[in-house]
Amino acid sequence: MVAAALLGAAASTAGTPVVGGPETHALLSGIPQAGVFLGNAHAPVTVIEVADLQCPFCRHFMLTGLPGIARDFVRTGRARFVFNGVAYLGPQSVPALEAVLAAGVQDRLWNFAELLYHNQGQENSGWVTEDLLQAVARRVAGLDYRRWLTDRRSRAVAAARTDAARLAQQLHVPGTPAFFVTRKGRRPIPVLASLPGPLRAAIEKQLRR
Predict the structure, then answer these.
(1) Domain tally, the chain
(2) Residue 91, preceding bond cis, omega within 30 degrees?
(3) N or C, which terminus of the chain has less Cβ within 10 Å?
(4) pLDDT of res. 164
């Protein structure tokens, strides 16, 4: 019933503008995805990114910092990213996170998140609308739209939200974005800056170990 109702409302998304398509394709095309993961499963280094989709600093990193790091470390198979989404900034963070996690069920999480960041508005200003989420979903290449509608309310997405919140608590995350770099079997090391320079240095340090 929920999916049917949303499908009935979907016609209104036709005129909803969504920017960032070419940039998203350029960033992610050819990089393997699996759920919340971006990059080769055998990459020696893993970067955990704790992010709120309403966070402007998360947006800044995704749009300006990630492209270079993805080019130098993710595409080369040396590092893999994990998106650990949280809803810290208010109630509008919840539907945004659920929409992104539902795209992750189809291994399109990073495409959805990137597009949503391109279209981000001011925190809790009402920018996370159903029309926008549906318009973004329709522009994610390879995403089964009807399945996405259903998955947003699924137990799998609810469990993923719970797991992400638990991990953020275990890592003592004070705010977003937060980054942790690790190698298999080792304790995640926090990177105390969201700028690409310190994160790049932390990845390189782990690669030398």
Answers:
(1) 1
(2) no
(3) N
(4) 96
